[in-house]
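A note from the maintainers: we've had questions about how concatenated examples are separated. There is no special marker in the raw files; a new sequence line simply starts the next protein. For clarity in this README we add a label.
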Amino acid sequence: MPLPYVLLSAAVSLDGYLDDTGPERLLLSSPADFDRVDETRASADAVLIGAGTLRADNPRLLVNSPERRAARVGAGRPEYPLKVTVTASGDLDPAACFWHTGGEKLVYTTDEGAERARRLGVAADVVPLGPGLDWRALLEHLHDVRGVRRLMVEGGGTVHTQLLQQGLADELQLVLAPLLVGDPKAPRLFGPGAYQAGRLRLTETRRIEDVVLMRYEPTAPGTGRSVTAADRHWTRIACELAALCPPSETAFSVGAVVVAEDGTELARGHSREGGDPVVHAEEAALAKIGPADPRLPSATVYSSLEPCARRASRPAPCARLILSAGVRRVVTAWREPDTFVAAADGTGLLSAEGVDVVLLTEYEESAMAPNRHLLTGE
């Protein structure tokens, strides 16, 4: 199921704290960075915080710039992003600023929490998610029911931790402030847990007055049939590689990337790479990795098109090459049509050998784009 783009936003001290333990909120961002945050909010369809942050900070979560609000309205969007909070207990203060400023509000909670929130009379739509909080169900509901394509998450530490642990964050925007808190009782950005994000990829650093903005994206693949933000990233890369293929009237344009469990890119390739008119994308990528590389069994192969199960140009189809390499997980964007091979079923061949095959149909259009001329009726 498609999910919103999830952007985690936070500011921390040099020693990793979100706040101190004093009665007033510790301001970590600079004035210019607060304006950047306002701009980021204005770009989002929804802004989300946990109930703990709502209680501790009593935020309004508004777009403060009149010009940015006017631009949203001029683009046919609501003046303010949808404001979302998440609570297991439903224990919310109906007098909080959150409910009485800005536009629409939404509460995600448990079945029990929903009853409590409604009894308290919070001024928001309340959506129960069942006996427990389910982040994937929450994101699916935001995307499918509320039309949210870009979600900004502003805290707190528990929310950020859970989204990273479950591989549901697409980006982390972290501001580092020149302050030291030094109090072990103060709240930290991330709590303990078995993170699946692996080594994050740094995409930008920017000095903003006396703070530094660092932007990261996760790289580690999912496990089994679970899908992470990194899976979406690498599938998108595979589709971009497909667009690099020399055009052909007799073969598909396909891109592929092989990624280790820790998020390290092992190799990439695309159809007809290097002037070879018959080389396939997965074949080109795997040929660049030593067959004894110990990272292969836990790696993931990302391909814009389902790996082939039969081919005339080489002795072994790509599905067999993947099996021979020992790879146990494949993510693809598009099932192979019958254009060149009838009843193509690389997924079936791989699955029969115990490989987890994940289909990310949200990238099907991107995978098909460089192949339109080959498809019947296109």
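[label: protein 2]
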Amino acid sequence: MNLNPSNQLNLYGHQTEFINFKNLYFNKKLPNKILLSGEKGIGKSTLAYHLINNILSTDEEFSYDFEKFSINPNNKSFRLIKNKSNPNFISIDIIEDRKSIDINQIRNLILNLNKSSFNNKPRLVLIDNIELLNINSVNALLKILEEPNDNIYFILINNNKKILPTLKSRCLNYKIHLTSKESFNITNKILGENFMNLINDQMISNYSTPGSLLNLLNFANKNDVNLKEINLKDFIKSIIKVKKYKKDQFIRYLLYSLIEIYFSKNLSLKNIKLLDIRNYFLNKINNTKIFNLDDEILLMEFEDRVLNG
């Protein structure tokens, strides 16, 4: 199952936001610096890719299908973006095995934007996981955000994490969200079946997003895990053991999500000692996510004190 937002041809959910952005653009009122904020896995990046395809494919054959909220895989812009060769689109995200988006990525972006445009179409820059920009990257990005060249639009994706106020203040912030019912319905539409038939309900909470649920299933398929049979405790231990969270941000977020679910379903809040343990680890997890800290020692401590305790 390919979960990359750039390959999602159908937009499930967020249609109202899409229509609003589309109307703003074609009425020449779309802000040139947009921040999409919300939980990881709710479809912010997919929404951005659909808006980008809508803009770039306007005069193309097989342009964006508004009635179905879908990208035609035969349109030129989609194929060029998929091949990473669209002159009007630049995407920046964390590189595999890195802990942050480094300054060289932003410097290359600036060099590209200072070059002459190939055509009269707008140029769109999508920066995902902006909370993973390091301080040097943020400072470099701020300079180009202050005075962007004409006909350039920035779309920044933030997963409800702490970012510098100076960066946030330069963008128009749109909060994107889904109810639990919407998340579950979207997951079922993407899968083509009821995900509850595939996952032990120990691993599901009202805060589970389509991205987290689909990533959970994807991880299980690749590692031959029966999510209906394995319990939550053993599944968390298996993820910590293989350490794939160190190279894959989605697995990292998935693991933290499962730990939070484990606390909510297994530790009684009436027990002061257990409550202190819960608060201790949730606070450390939160700081680790916000400040992009090393997580191996934290997870080893969690396994020792909670899972094996």
